[in-house]
Amino acid sequence: MAQIRMRSAKGPNASEIEKKIKRGNALRQSSSWLSTRVVLALLLASAGVCGSFMWLYLSSLDPEITETLARQSELLSPEPRVFPVPCSQDYEQHKRFPGCTIQQCARAVTDAVVTREEAHVLRRLAERGLSLAGSEGGASILDLHSGALSMGKQFVNIYRYFGEQLDEVFTEEDFRLYRDVRRRIQSVIARTFDLNAEHMYLTKPTFFSRINSTEAHTQHDEYWHPHVDKVTYGSFDYTSLLYLTDYGADFSGGRFIFMDPDGNRTVEPRAGRLSFFSSGSENLHRVEKVTWGTRYAITVSFTCDPAYGISDPALPTAGP
Ligand SMILES: *[C@@H]1O[C@H](CO)[C@@H](O)[C@H](O)[C@H]1NC(C)=O
Ligand SMILES: *[C@@H]1O[C@H](CO)[C@@H](O)[C@H](O)[C@H]1NC(C)=O
């Protein structure tokens, strides 16, 4: 009975079974297509991961760079990224100024003080100023405070040399932005190092720099030597660098390197990025040679000693 029923059940069900088999095949096909896609995706993903590791590996191959403190692609905001370092003994021979003399040495980087738009305006200002002359070698400077501008193998004073012509090169607004940025830099340094901004003074040299890959013609063009700002410039207590162009996009090479006994640590320039540090031997540094493109930056320096203070620049026609 059962067999008969099965057999008789088989009749009407035969086409059902065929359908099931076809559906199963179709499913299997689509699932094998699916799994091919999954395998492909996995392959791609692992290739990506391998690629990233390869990139990390290759970039870690730069034998002279131990650590990158700030990459160009990062946005350090709103708080500065601070790296404390033990103070050198440089400060012991110097007079102490309450509210300004360093308590805890460090280096710091922030992208939150100057916008990229402001950096662009300042870069245009530097381009126009430096286009008046410029060094024959790869490094030129423009100091709006003293008026010093690289020209050939030496310097000229733009205020004396170009006089009223400067009205066509700089605007009052340019100078206002420059002064305002200087004030903001002073205040972020004061906040970070727990100082009184009113007891800090702008000092010299404070200047724009333009560096390209052309070889040096004089020693003024040799920007890449390791140095300590407090030793080189005496009056410096806090050094800051405001970058106006992007590492990797506008130029290559030109990274800032802190040379520590246990390794080299870099800051990659980024337009609008401010890097600042205590100026003593704890922050021995150099700038890597620029290999292509043009690097623009402003060095803004502060002292604790009012005797070394300088004032903000003003256009001769507009200022006192
Ligand atoms: C670098 O700048 C100088 C001007 O200071 C210019 O004469 C030279 O052609 C520039 N070099 C490159 C490679 O752009
Ligand atoms: C740091 O860089 C200098 C050259 O710029 C190199 O001689 C030195 O070996 C580097 N230090 C380390 C620890 O990699």
UniProtKB/TrEMBL annotation:
Q: Which GO terms describe its cellular component?
A: membrane
Transmembrane region(s): 38-58
MF GO annotations: dioxygenase activity; iron ion binding; L-ascorbic acid binding; oxidoreductase activity, acting on paired donors, with incorporation or reduction of molecular oxygen
* The keyword Cytoplasm is annotated on this UniProt entry: no
| Cofactor or coenzyme needed | L-ascorbate
Quote any Pfam family the record assigns.
Answer: 2OG-FeII_Oxy_3
Keyword annotations for this protein, in alphabetical order, are: Dioxygenase, Iron, Membrane, Metal-binding, Oxidoreductase, Transmembrane, Transmembrane helix
Domain Fe2OG dioxygenase: where?
204-305
PROSITE patterns linked to this entry? FE2OG_OXY
Whether Membrane counts among this entry's keywords is yes
- Spell out the InterPro entries in the cross-references: OGFOD3 (IPR039210), Oxoglu/Fe-dep_dioxygenase_dom (IPR005123), Pro_4_hyd_alph (IPR006620), Pro_4_hyd_alph_FE2OG_OXY (IPR044862)
Q: What is this protein called?
A: Fe2OG dioxygenase domain-containing protein
What is the scientific name of the source organism?
Knipowitschia caucasica
Its lineage opens with:
Eukaryota, Metazoa, Chordata, Craniata, Vertebrata
